[in-house]
């Protein structure tokens, strides 16, 4: 029996599907159904019951298989609910058969928790099956005390069925018109106050002038953001679809066979056209991306998990309590990312705190010291041009494409500011703030450890760092400061050359009759766990001293980070929340240009510190990898 509230009873009516009615047998397979419309969406609700022990599981499941096939042909949105007396929580043949049948018809079961609990046992013999998108359906247990079974409350949100979802968001519009206005504002700037300012205030003054015009020309405005799940469908394909529907409607009236043949032919053309259109769209999307691997996995995930909720609120469990408040979640993440490193470093801090205690034996020590050459406007122009056109930005919201568009107006004052930084040994504090985005990896979504922090630095910080990076690598390379086994960040070397040498060493060992053992090491939290005092000692031993060393100390000292989360609020607006800023005590900056090369300096001498081992090292994209070949 299915009961309907008076307020919606006029929308539903009892339906008897002849083919399903023939399947009904008392105690063996009992069902009833109602059908109706919610808005413009048709839905059928079927109640199922099977007496426990009344018949073999195969008989009931066989009839369920037939019923699902019939329902799928007649209805797009189907819900079956009832007491089927098959425990979904137990590993049994009947349970496996049930899951296979549901999968064959693109159905899923929603109840995965106990529905009948006694003092001696608990089971889940009541369930809900549906072919509606999982993101639109939620189910929860309700204790009624009217029966020894709990009730199940099923909620369906048909509002999320829209092909194109619309949200609003505060964004900056980097239009051509706004960019031209920005150029005119900067052209009128003399920057005289910048050139006359004290060294330690130059960047702050540069930033204040720049950001004033930036905010004026690119104000935050509320704009609509559309999420179209079928971006590959164009207007031509939509017209073809409308033509097919029109032909089909005519055939139902005229019953004309010739028109039917035309329809079938055009259906084939339409399917082929749609497949090719989608294939070309995906191919172009991958080929034109900056990161082909990342784009490929994004396409795969979108196709295999099409119903993922956009910017849904993250729920975390800490100390046994569930937290979904965005601000509290951002604080939990920031505390976790900072505290995780503290737990790794502090126990080993006593022995590493002395700058004279270097991590490894440094080879090729010399009196050659590192001196910074100033950057000129021509070099700075080339450096800015070398960056990719990515609109991701740090806390200041300044993207690289905007800087590239007006670089001819910035290279002179910016070169002056950067050179002043090098001369004074001071790295600007404004450039030490990292914005952290969280990326879910795998596992339980309520566990903070299953999220990876993605650090985004200010755009001007990247320019500063690239200037220093070019000079530092040139000094280390020209003076043979790198280990011979190091293949990262060296001209003519890469992870491929490291792999080739490793394979050749292995083959040589086998040819000699030696026993070769390969040890592959991936250091967890390696970049985050670098002790600053030890790193400064290493840099000094490599020939970096004086004001230049002061600059690196300033670069590492007093760095800060905060976590930013985005979510959709109750008004369908994409909102952002930021945690409080926390100080980073250890590590080289994630997402930075200097971070990887500083880490290589930190582990310099590692191969020489282990005797009788042939090692190959490659450090790239913040993943230090060590390949060891041990001849036994």
TrEMBL record:
GO terms (BP aspect): DNA biosynthetic process
Pfam family of the protein (one): RVT_1
Reverse transcriptase domain location is 420-632
Q: Which protein is depicted? A: Reverse transcriptase domain-containing protein
């Amino acid at each position: 029996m299915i009961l309907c509230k008076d307020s919606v009873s006029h929308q539903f009516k009892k339906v008897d599907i002849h083919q399903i009615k023939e399947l009904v047998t008392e105690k063996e397979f009992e069902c009833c159904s109602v059908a109706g419309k919610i808005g413009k969406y048709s839905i059928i609700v079927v109640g199922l019951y099977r007496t426990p022990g009344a018949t073999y599981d195969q008989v009931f499941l066989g009839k369920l298989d037939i019923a699902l096939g019939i329902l799928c042909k007649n209805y797009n949105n189907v819900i079956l609910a009832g007491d089927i007396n098959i425990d979904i929580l137990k590993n049994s043949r009947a349970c496996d058969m049930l899951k296979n049948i549901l999968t064959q018809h693109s159905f899923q079961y929603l109840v995965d928790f106990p529905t009948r609990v006694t003092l001696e046992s608990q089971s889940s013999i009541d369930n809900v099956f549906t072919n509606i998108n999982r993101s639109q359906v939620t189910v929860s247990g309700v204790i009624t005390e009217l029966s020894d079974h709990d009730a199940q409350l099923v909620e369906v949100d048909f509002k999320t069925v829209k092909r194109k979802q619309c949200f609003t968001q505060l964004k900056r519009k980097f239009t051509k018109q706004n960019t031209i206005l920005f150029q005119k504002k900067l052209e009128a700037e003399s920057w005289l106050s910048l050139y006359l300012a004290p060294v330690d205030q130059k960047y702050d003054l540069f930033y204040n002038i720049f950001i004033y015009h930036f905010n004026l020309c690119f104000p935050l405005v509320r704009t609509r953001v559309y999420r179209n799940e079928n971006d590959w469908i164009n207007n031509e394909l939509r017209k073809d679809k409308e033509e097919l529907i029109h032909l089909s409607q005519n055939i139902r009236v005229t019953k004309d066979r010739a028109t039917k043949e035309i329809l079938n032919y055009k259906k084939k053309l339409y399917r082929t056209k749609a497949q090719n259109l989608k294939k070309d769209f995906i191919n172009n999307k991958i080929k034109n991306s900056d990161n082909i691997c990342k784009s490929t996995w994004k396409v795969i995930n979108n196709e295999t998990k099409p119903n993922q909720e956009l910017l849904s609120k993250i729920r975390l469990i800490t100390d046994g309590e569930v937290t979904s408040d965005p601000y509290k979640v951002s604080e939990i993440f920031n505390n976790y990312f900072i505290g995780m490193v503290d737990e790794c470093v502090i126990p080993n801090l006593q022995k590493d705190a002395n700058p004279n205690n270097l991590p490894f034996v440094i080879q090729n020590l010399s009196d050659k010291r590192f001196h910074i050459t100033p950057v000129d406007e021509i070099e700075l122009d080339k450096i800015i041009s070398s960056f990719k056109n990515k609109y991701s930005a740090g806390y200041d919201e300044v993207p690289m494409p905007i800087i590239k568009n007006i670089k001819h107006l910035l290279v002179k004052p910016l070169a002056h500011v950067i050179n002043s930084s090098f001369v004074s040994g001071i790295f600007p504090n404004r450039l030490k703030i990292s914005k952290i985005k969280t990326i879910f990896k795998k596992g339980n979504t309520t566990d903070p450890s299953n999220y990876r922090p993605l650090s985004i630095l200010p755009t001007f910080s990247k320019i500063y760092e690239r200037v220093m990076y070019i000079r530092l690598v040139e000094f280390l390379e020209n003076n043979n400061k790198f280990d011979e086994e190091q293949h990262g960040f060296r001209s003519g070397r890469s992870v491929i050359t490291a792999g080739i040498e490793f394979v050749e060493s292995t083959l040589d060992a086998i040819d000699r009759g030696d026993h070769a053992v390969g040890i592959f090491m991936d250091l967890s939290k390696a970049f985050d766990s670098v002790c600053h005092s030890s790193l400064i000692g290493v840099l000094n031993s490599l020939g970096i001293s004086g004001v230049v060393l002061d600059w690196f100390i300033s670069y590492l000292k007093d760095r800060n980070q905060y976590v930013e989360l985005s979510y959709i609020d109750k008004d369908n607006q994409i909102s952002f929340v930021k945690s409080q800023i926390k100080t980073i005590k250890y590590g080289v900056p994630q997402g930075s240009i200097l971070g990887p090369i500083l880490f290589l300096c930190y582990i310099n001498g590692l191969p020489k510190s282990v005797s009788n081992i042939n090692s190959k090292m490659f450090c790239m994209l913040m993943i230090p990898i060590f390949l060891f070949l041990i001849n036994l």
